[in-house]
Design a protein that fits this description.
heterodimer; A: 281 residues; mainly alpha; 2 domains; two-stranded antiparallel sheet; globular; B: 233 residues; alpha/beta; Rossmann fold; six-stranded mixed β-sheet; four-stranded antiparallel β-sheet; 10 strands
Amino acid sequence: MFIKLLKNDFIQTGRMYLWLLGTGVAAGGIGALFTLNQQIGAGQLFVALLWNLLLILGALALYVLSLAIILVSTNRALFTERGYLTFALPVSSAQMLGSKLITNIVFVLLSIAEAAGLVYTSFFNMRRLVEKVTESMAEQIGIADVKDSFATMDIGLPSFSELMQFLSFFLVAAVMILVLVMMVCLFVLTVSHVRPFQAKPGLWIPVFLAAGAAACIWIVSEAPKRLAEKGFSISVTLSMGRMFGGENPSINMVGPIIMLVLSAGLFFLTNWLLSRKISLK
Amino acid sequence: MTDIITLKRLTKAYGPKVVLENIDLAIPAGSIVGLMGPNGCGKTSLMKILTGMINDYSGIVRVGGQSVGAYSKSITAYLPDRSYLPAWMTAKQCVNYMADFFKDFDSPKAMDMLEAFQLEPGQRVKTMSKGMQEKLLLLLTMSRRAKLYVLDEPLGGVDPSARQFIMDTILHNRPEGSTILLSTHMIYDMERVFDYALMIGRKQVLLFDSVPNLEAQGKTLNELFQEVFPYVY
């Protein structure tokens, strides 16, 4: 039954995500098309550079919008009229919550990957475009300084093994953070629909989100120090090996362990609220 | 005869307002129960508790011998008083969705009913009129071979012809041995159909008895309702 729930959650959330991911791909594609054009005038070049610059802002917007979609789609599925369908399904509240958690994480990961791709493509495109700029064109469209900056930047494609190393590093870090972020979102949405707050969830959701984010940041940053003060010194480091020919990034696992404990606590609390305290209007 | 619904000391309050207080009730399986009471007396709350839409109550609630949860939901078909279907879904997608989750959902029957109700399988919910959406919800509910049907005011706000159509749909598609708990204000139209009458109000069960027993008192359900809930000017 959980697989069916997951399948339907993917379909329903995917519907809202499709246009967002599609827009990102289309915008990136347009940026790349500018770069492929060999004969490019000063005016077109300016537009192409501006477009690629906007792609970087678009990547940030993509991430923010993906979180907004998560909040809207989860809220709609659980706490509006649609909740009458969701809550009538023969599944436990833990299954309901688990399915939402996995679906949301997958789609946010997809949007993060797309945002990262957009940023990379944008820088790559801009460097190619700047290479096409002659001195006179640079003066004409006022990007002489930009041209010099890009000339000194080293933007190239990483090797396959470097890319795999980066992705595994990125996935470990991103999934751990995302599990916590998603659990905070699910907890906040649920608690905002418990009776004292149910009348105005739109007011309480931002308040609880801010409070939840602040509390989590404080706990994740302060807990290791406090534990160390009390003699519980934990030192687990997961090294990811040398990457991109330079740094040797590593994750101190204390933070992620605390995040996982926090996420598990929030999961149990949210599940309890869903099964004991939620009443659909 | 075993009980399909058992309530013990059920209490439900909305803030300071208590709507159901220490209710004890056992509804036998295989019967059609008319749930009656004035507006705001807790009929919908009781139905929402039985179907897992309301979870903040106290007391014991058992459906099919178990607490409200995945099992009770698998044997209960619920028709709420509002449309809950995703607007983007087509009628066929709604049928597939229900078939995906409910083992007792009869897809061929649902498709036959779509045709009988003159609903297009490819039509999206958002383009359907209110009446069409109500028909779709009714057929999705009655296409299940559930042990318990909880129907919240299925006859509310419809004309007499549609009322007859809805009642026929419910009665003809009800599996043998199943229980129907149906809330209504249309007592006069429904009293011939009910096996039991359940009247709630003033936070309590004010009357629960079989219709033949009540008729033996020489009164119609309508008259009993007016006795139990006298109109106060």
